[in-house]
Amino acid sequence: MTSNLSEAQTMGKYANVNGIKMYYEVHGTGSPLVLIHGGGSTIKTNFSRIMPEFAKTHKVIAVELQAHGHSGDRDAPESFIQDADDVAELLKQLNIPKADFLGFSNGGQTCIELGLRHADKLRKLIIASAFYSRDAAPETFWNGFETPDFTHMPQIYKDEYLKIGTKEGLMNMFNKDAQRMYTFKGWTDEQIRSIQAPALVVIGDQDLATPEHAAKMARLFQHGRLAILPGTHGSYIGEAYNPKPESKIPDLFVTMVNEFLAE
């Protein structure tokens, strides 16, 4: 499975959204499916493997959030609330009243805020490799944000960002991402329980968050489903940090998501 990434990048557009210039791409036709990347990432690093497959059956709207990739920044910290509001505003401008949303990692946390703040825009949610409370990850993970170390950022993320932006922009994104996680408070069980949209929670069996946490979150959703796939953080979607071009699991992920969306 290959993707025409050079072509994809030329298909990108910008919208003025809540004070920033927000980058997005639209691929394919069909029911709208919004792809929301994780921290430090771009459309390309997270979704280059699966996006062309989803575009065979969906109108895929892939976004880049504040300070990430091609998108601009604002004089304010990043927040999942703001990201959710930005995505909702973009869809409003694109005249898409309702869509399915797939969020990977921090993108999954943006999906939670979409479920809380913009329920009228949601058909179904796919929350992949995300967590809703601090107890999902080990204490060493959280301690790392007290004095964030730029050398710990995956080199592939740095390289891909620098194809788009500047070193200053890269450090800005890194610092804002780290600050958001340093101050992460999460959501209560009651908040997750209040989300009415059907939600498919996906986790790798060797992911950052535990399968047990993912199972708890899936049960809290009013209409939750759970999938535990063999793999690490994002390997099951063919994410750039852990590429396994020979793996068929990303194809299975696409098939599974499509069946969930068709239910």
How many helix segments? 11
Strands, count: 8
Distance between the terminal alpha carbons, to the nearest Å? Answer: 26 Å
C-alpha Rg (nearest Å): 17 Å
Strand order of the largest sheet: 1-2-4-3-5-6-7-8
Order of helices and strands: HEEEHHEHEHEHHHHEHEH
User: Which quaternary structure do these chains form?
Assistant: single chain
Beta-strand residue fraction: 15-25%
Sheet/helix structural class: alpha/beta
Quick summary of this structure?
Helix content is 38%, strand content 19%. The chain contains 11 helices and 8 strands.
Description:
Helix 4 crosses helix 5. The chain has 263 residues and is an alpha/beta fold. Helix 5 links the parallel strand 5 and strand 6. The two termini are 26 Å apart. The protein is globular, with a radius of gyration of 17 Å. Strands 1-2-4-3-5-6-7-8 form an 8-stranded mixed β-sheet, with helices on both faces. It has 11 helices and 8 strands.
What topology does this entry show?
Elements: H1 5-10, E1 13-17, E2 20-27, E3 31-36, H2 43-47, H3 51-54, E4 58-64, H4 80-93, E5 99-104, H5 106-117, E6 122-128, H6 139-143, H7 155-162, H8 167-182, H9 189-193, E7 199-204, H10 211-220, E8 224-229, H11 249-262
Parallel strand pairs: 3-4, 3-5, 5-6, 6-7, 7-8
Antiparallel strand pairs: 1-2, 2-4
Helix pairs in contact: 4-5
